[in-house]
Amino acid sequence: MTFQNTREFAKQLDSQDLLNHYQDQFIFPKVNGKRVIYFTGNSLGLQPKRTKSYIDEIMNDWAGLAVEGHFYAEKPWWDYQERFPEPLSKIVGALPSEITVMNTLTVNLHLLMVSFYQPTQTRYKIICEEKAFPSDQYMFQSQVDFHGYKPEDAIVEIKRREGEHNIRLEDVLAKIEEVGEELALVLIGGVNYYTGQVFDIKTITAAGHKAGAKVGWDLAHAAGNIKLELHDWNVDFAAWCSYKYMNSGPGNASGCFVHEKHHNADLPRFAGWWGHNKERRFKMEPDFDPVKGAGGWQISNLPVLSLAPYLASVEMFAEVGMDALIAKRDQITSYLEFILHEIDKEVDSTFEIITPSNPAERACQLSVFLHGEGRNLFDYLMKNGVITDWREPNVIRLAPVPLYCSFEDMYDFGQILKKGILGK
């Protein structure tokens, strides 16, 4: 498609957009009395309007039933989490038995590493990507330290080549082969939070297994954003937060995937009551009998007030389907890229998009170096109704989330950006 940098063309794209009406199902902040252009769904998604009713239902059941709500609420609390595996399995490409929801992201990754990072004297190294999200870096450091290893010996970072912003697949595969028999675990972010690069999960997983290692994925920026086939790709485990592209609310519950091949394995785990055999849970038995499947990794009674917003979102995803989301994601991201290039021609500053240009290696994010610009431009955008994300030294991250961003938003952003530069 040949794009045009005009409002009329953007409106035409919106008129053809099958998801356009979903914008009306979200609550937007306002700046100067006008709805914002929201580019930070890769940090915190907007609130769906339907969310409040899901929370109110639990509050009403709590008021009217108290403890009996565990069994007699409209959605009984004691099995509330069982409403998630079926719809989430379609979002991440899994069997329902491979999915559970619990805790928060880094907590779940720690718990999964209890099972899947079992270092030995000779096989103890972890491969991750350079400039992983800090929480993952801290997790790796504390895990290897717990097992008695030094981070500088046990953690192997795959680095970008000099002068490049993204990590090459061949360098990932070469590093896995190089570490070889010392490799215990590959654990990488499916989408790099800083650059927006999408990693080849299938190929990297196969390479890690060939080296004899377990392979897990931090899907914080991937779940609800990219096409995933975790079961078919033979991924050992994965976890993701729900508050970015899945709009479940700040700091909310995390999803977990544990491949079916591990469900009957004698793996170490940190056990708790809610992972015990559901039919015998209230017999208060002293010996742990895990639920078969990912649910066996649950520990505590689930916080249903946190799960309610997630359920509202998951049901919206079930209505839309990942194929429709990805189709719009690709088109609106390409249109945003076009707008940036067009504005670049009209101003003295230079925009360098560090996210891969290959659609197969990116999703719903463009990270842009604003050469010649500083924090003042970011401040201008925020004051003029463009909610975006600033990363030092001068990068803005733009996530045109397909559920609630419009093509006209992309055009308007370009005009505000141009005015912010020319008017300085």
From TrEMBL:
Its cofactor is pyridoxal 5'-phosphate. It is an enzyme of class 3 (hydrolase). The modification N6-(pyridoxal phosphate)lysine is found at K244. It catalyses: 3-hydroxy-L-kynurenine + H2O = 3-hydroxyanthranilate + L-alanine + H(+); L-kynurenine + H2O = anthranilate + L-alanine + H(+). Pyridoxal 5'-phosphate binds at L105, T106, F133, P134, S135, D136, D218, H221, Y243, W273, N301. Keywords: Hydrolase, Pyridine nucleotide biosynthesis, Pyridoxal phosphate. It comes from the Bacteria. Its EC number is 3.7.1.3. Residues 56-246 form the Aminotransferase class V domain. GO terms for cellular component: cytoplasm. One of its GO terms (biological process) is L-tryptophan catabolic process to kynurenine. InterPro entries: Aminotrans_V_dom, Kynureninase, PyrdxlP-dep_Trfase, PyrdxlP-dep_Trfase_major, PyrdxlP-dep_Trfase_small. Pfam families: Aminotran_5, KYNU_C. GO terms for molecular function: kynureninase activity; pyridoxal phosphate binding. Belongs to the kynureninase family. Homodimer. HAMAP family: Kynureninase (MF_01970). This is Kynureninase. It comes from Flavobacterium cheongpyeongense. The lineage of its organism: Bacteria, Pseudomonadati, Bacteroidota, Flavobacteriia, Flavobacteriales.
